[in-house]
Amino acid sequence: MTERRVMPPTVQISHLSKTFPGQQALDDVNISIQPAEIHALLGQNGSGKSTLIKVLAGIYTPDPGARIEVCGEPLSFGSPRESRRLGLQFVHQALGIVEECTAVENIALGIGYRTRMGFIDWPAQRLKTQELLTKLDLEFDIECPVSRLRPVDRTAIAIARAIDDEGHGGRLLVLDEPTAALPPHEVDLLFSLVRQARASGTSVVYVSHRLNEIFELADRATVLRDGVAVGTVEVKDLNHDILAEMIVGEGMMEADVASNVVGEVVDRGPALIKVSDLRGVRLDGVDFEVAPGEIVGVAGLTGSGREELAGVLVGERAGSVALEMDTGETVRDPSPGRAKDLGVVLVLPNRKDGAAADELSVLENITLPALQRYTRFGFTDRAEERRDALRWIERLDIRPPNPDRRYGLLSGGNQQKVIFGKWLNLGPRVMVIDDPTSGVDIGARSAIYGLIREYAATGMGFIVCSSDSDDLRAVCDRVLVLNEGRIVEELPREQLDEVRLLSAMMGRNPVSAVADD
Amino acid sequence: MHEYWPRTRRFLGFGNIGAVYVWLFIIILFTLWVPDVFPTVNTTQAISRNFTTAGLASLAILLPMASGTFDASIGGTISLSSVLCAWLLINTGLPIPLVILITIAAGVGVGLFNAFTVIALRIPSLIATLATWLIADSLSVAVSGNRTITSTRVSGEFTQISRADLWGFTAPFFYVIVLMVLLAIFMSFTSTGRMMYAVGFNPEVARLSGVRVKRMQVMALVASGAIAAFAGVVLTARLSSATPTSGSPYLLPAFAAVFLGATQFRAKRFNAPGTVIAVYMLGTGQYGLLLAGAPQWMPNVFQGVALVAAIGLTQLRDDSAPKIRHRKSPNRTSPPSSDTKAADVIGVAAEGTPR
After folding, report:
1. Number of structural domains found in chain B
2. What sign does the dihedral B39-B40-B41-B42 (CA atoms) show?
3. Which of A69, A356, B70, B200 lies 20 to 30 Å from A434, alpha-carbon distance?
4. B 188-247 residues with CB below 8 A of A?
5. A331 burial class (0-12, 13-18, 19+ CB within 10 angstroms)?
6. Can you tell me whether residue A99 is helix, strand or coil?
7. What is the pLDDT of residues B119-154, one digit of tens each?
8. Which value does ipTM take for this structure?
9. How far off is chain A from B80, nearest CA to CA, in Å?
10. pTM metric for this prediction
11. Domains, chain A, ranges and CATH?
12. Residues 132-161 (B) with a CB less than 8 A from some CB of A
C-alpha cells in the first residue's frame, strides 16, 4: 500500500499457532515486519509475546501449518542456529553477556573470534569492536570488565554484537524489554541505539510494557491478546488510551465494574502493620499501612521497584525498611527469621529459587518454617507433622495428596499451593505475596484467590505484589502503584479497571499528550 | 499382614537398596571364584576390621555433604590426629581417655578452622578444605618428625580401643555401627538434622524459613572434624603406631561411599545406613579381589567403576540422584511443563550467549 512495501518484508509470519498442553499460546498469528522499521510487540503477560519470540529464536517449534519467511527465505523451525543463520538476532532481558569479560571478549563471543594461524588475533578483534561501537556512536573503555560499565553500555554491547553478526548481518533485531533494567536517564541513549540500528537497515522488534516508549520509538505496533494478534497499527495514528484499550481488550471495563460491586467500605480499625521508609535498589522511600483483613496490592512495571518490594520487606533481598506491628513491636531491616517471628512472611512464586526445596518432600517443605513447633527435646514429632501436612494437603487440595512426595515432582499450581501451605501453617499475621500466580494454571489461580480472601476475612493482612493486573483486580481492596521507586497513585477497589491500572503503571507523560493531537 | 506387602516390596526394591543386591552379587561371585578362602568367618571378620577407618571417614563427611559443603580435609585430620594421639602417649603421661579427648578437641579445632575459611572467608568449601587437608597432613609430618612413631604405651593398653572384640568382630566395627545409628537418628528424627538437609538442598529456602544457615554448616564441619579425629585415634590403636600422612588415602573412598550411599533408600539423599552399606560393599569387592590374586591396582579400579556405575544408573532411572548443591533450574515457566527440551534450550538462550 505504501511505497516501502515494494521490498519483501524482512520477516513474514503466517498462520503461526502454538499450543501448549491446556493452553493455546498463539492462535493463527500473521505479522509482517518491514525492512528498517521499528515494530513494537505489545500485550499483557501471557498474551503470547514471549512465545512468539521464542518461535522466532528457534526455541519453540510451532504447531503445523505455520510459515515464517525471512527476506523471502523460509525459516525451518526449532533450531536456534537456523534462526541465527537467517539473520534473526535477539537481545534478551538477561543480556547474555559475561560480566567479568571485556567488551572485546563479549563481542567476540557473539560474532566469533578472528584468528590468525589458530590463535586469536587480538588487535583485529579490538579494531572490530571499536568499529562496531563507533557505528553505534558509542565510546567507552573496551578493555575493562563489562560489570564496571553503565547498564546501557551493556545493552549496547549486546546490540552491537547482534546487529553485526557475520553472514546475514542482523536483518532483524529483537529487543525484549530492553529498558526494564535501565535507569531512566539511560533510556534515551538506548533509543538512539535502536534508531541507529534502524538507520543501518536492520528491522527491530521492540517488546515493552511502557506505552510512552512505543510512542517515542516505534513505527508500527502489533498487539497480542490471549494469543491472538488483534491488530497491527501505525503508531502515529494512535493515542495512549486507544492503545491501552487494544492491549486490555474492549468490554473488560464493564466486567470489572460488575466484579467490583462487592467491595464495601468498612472501617478496619488501626493498622496491623506500618511499613515505612522502604528502600532498595530502585525503591526510594515507600510508606504504607495494612489494616487487619485488608488486601493491599502493589502494582508497577518491571523496573518500578515493584519486583523488589516484597523481598526487601522481609529481608529476602538487600534494602532497608522499618516495620511496626500493632502490638507495638518495631524492627528495622529484619532478617527473614526476625520477620517470621513478627508474623510477617513472604510467599514467593514457585519458580523462584528460595520458594521451596525441590528435593524435600511436601511434608518437609510445609513444616520447615514451623519446625520449632514440632520439636520435643530436639526430636521432631513426626505424627504431628504428618497430621498438619495432611490437613494442608486436604485444605488446599494439593495433588497428588501424598505428603511424602518430592516437592520437585509436583506441577506448578500444586507447588504454589504447598508454598502457601507452608506459610499458612505458621499462622502468620501479615502475608507478603510476590507474584502469586505466575506459572500457575487457571484452576489453581482461582483457588489461590479464594484462599487469600478467606484468610483476609479472618483478619490476616495481605500485601500482594504482582505484575499481573488480574491478580490485583481479583483480590485487592486497594492498589498502590509504583513508578520509579515511589508510590505515584493509590487506586481503591472501585477504580481497579485494567485500563486505569495500566495507565497508572505506565505513567502518563508528555509523550502521550503529543500523540493525542 | 498383606497390606504391609507393598511397603515391604518397595523397601526391598532394587531402586531402594540396590547396593545390597550388588553386595550379595559380589559375595556370590567371589564365593564361586575363590571358594576356599572367600566364604569364611576369617574373611568376614577381616572385612569388618579392615574397612572401619574408611567407614568412620565416610561418616565424618556425611554431615557436611548433607548441609551442602564438602569437607576434603578429613584425610589430613585423620593423619594429624593419629600422630598427635601417639605423640601425646609417648611424650606425656596423660591418662588415655584424656589423650583421646585432646585429640578429638584438635579435630574440632580443624573443623572450626574449616568453618572460618568456608563460612567467614567464603572460600568455596572444596578449595578451602583441600587447603586445610594440606596443612593438617603436613603438620602430621612435623609432629612425628616424618617417621612412624610408637612406644610401649602406644602398643600397650591403648590398643584395647581397637582390639576388644565380640564374636570375633573388633570394637571399631561397632564404633562404625553405633555412629551410623546415631547419625541416622540425628539426620532423620531431629529438627536440626532436617534443617541441615534443607540447608544442603537449598540454602535460600532454609534462610527464608528462618534457619540459621551458617550455624548449621559450622556444626556440620565441626562434627566432621571430631569424627575424623576419632578415626585417627582408632587408626593408631589398630596399628599400634602412627605414621604421618596415613589418613590421606581415605578421602576419595569416603566420598565414593557417601555418594553411593545417597543412591540408597527412597529419599535419595545423603544418609548414614546407605553410606555404611556402600563402604562394606566396596570393601568386600576390594578384599575379594585381593584374595582372588588380582593385581594391586585392581581394587581401586573396581572402586571407581562401582561408583560411576551406581550413580550413573540412578541418574538414568530418574533425576533424583544426589546433588551436593541445589541445582537452579534455568527455566520453569508455565506452559512448557511437559516440554522440558524446550525449557533447557531457553535456559541457554536466556542465560548463555546467543550463538
Report:
1. 1
2. negative
3. B200
4. 189-192, 194-195, 197-198, 201-202, 204-212
5. middle
6. coil
7. 999 999 999 999 999 999 999 999 988 888 888 888
8. 0.80
9. 33
10. 0.75
11. 3-238 (3.40.50.300), 273-343+429-517 (3.40.50.300), 353-427 (no CATH)
12. none
